[in-house]
Amino acid sequence: MINVSIDSARSLYEVDGFCLFPEPVIPADVVERAVDGMDAIRRGEYDTDTPPQGSHWKPGDDPDALCKIECPHHASRAIMDLVRHPALGDLVGAVTGADWVQVWWVQLLYKPPSDDNLANIGWHADRQYWNVAWDISRSDLFTAWIALSDVTSDSGPMRFVPGTHKVDFGDAGDFWGQDLDALRDTIPMPDGMSWREVEAVLRPGGVSIHDMRTLHGSGPNRTSGPRRSFAIHMRTNRSETNEESNLTRFIDDEVKAPIIYRK
Ligand SMILES: O=C(O)CCC(=O)C(=O)O
After folding, report:
1. Which of 45, 107, 116, 259 is most deeply buried (CB count within 10 A of its CB)?
2. Which atom of ligand 1 is the closest one to the Cα of 156?
3. Helix pair angle (86-96, 6-16), 10° resolution
4. Structural domain contains residue 55
């Protein structure tokens, strides 16, 4: 059930560089199956017989570290069902106003409980990691981040810095940086712009959508259970690839990189 008006979400996305849908967009049964799919992938079990792409975290790695697995939707039917869910397609179509929207990459993100900084995600903008694969100046690239657990203030929610999608911060920021305050001090804010953080608190099935230029990061999960999510990276019809790259290698494969919305 979406209790945020699409018009206000669309204008917040344009003004702030992100928008939030805290209530479930994806039905509970789809989320529950995707949680089971996530656990299976963490055990190394792939019901499609296709493994995920080479990942930073592999089955058997430190359970207290951030678990980030690339393209889990290739390895799990339930995760593909979530990624292709029509409610998600309708939502991103409405927020972006695009003719069509394609999913080109997905990341599984499992943040275990931790009192220290083992599983923080440092301030960064996605653009800085995508500019080899994509012609950034001619591309509408964004991420729909789906919560699979109750993402509260205590569980290390994503934090967005509003308005930063309008600024070119170059390569400032680091996804793997663990000291968020120290990292923040290295990011030069332009005159007249102040640093403000907005937490993306979401119920299971809730969604945030952020532009590739918006600065974001997240701190420790101080709850007793894991923070579970998928970051679904998408593009609209207004996008151009730069050159062949690992990130865009599935762009012509509508099974692995599904178009989830058409006007
Ligand atoms: O999950 C997080 O805290 C950050 C995820 C992220 O960097 C992204 O979705 O672009």
Report:
1. 107
2. 3
3. 60
4. yes
Per the structure, how many domains does the chain have?
A: 1
**Ligand 1 mean position to 185 CA, how many Å?**
20
pLDDT, averaged per 10 consecutive residues of the chain (263 residues), comes to 80 97 98 98 97 94 94 98 98 98 98 86 97 96 98 98 96 94 96 96 98 98 97 98 92 97 97
Spatial distance between the Cα atoms of 80 and 252, rounded to a whole number of angstroms = 17
Query: What is the best residue among 83, 143, 160 to mutate for testing ligand 1's pocket, by most ligand atoms within 8 Å of CB?
Result: 143
Q: Is 109 in the pocket of ligand 1 (CB under 6 A)?
A: yes
What pTM was estimated for this model as a whole? 0.97
| Alpha carbons 18 and 14: distance in angstroms, whole number | 8
Atom of ligand 1 nearest to the CA of 109: 1
126 lines ligand 1 (CB under 6 A): yes
CA distances from 181 to 33, 178, 234 (A): 37, 9, 29
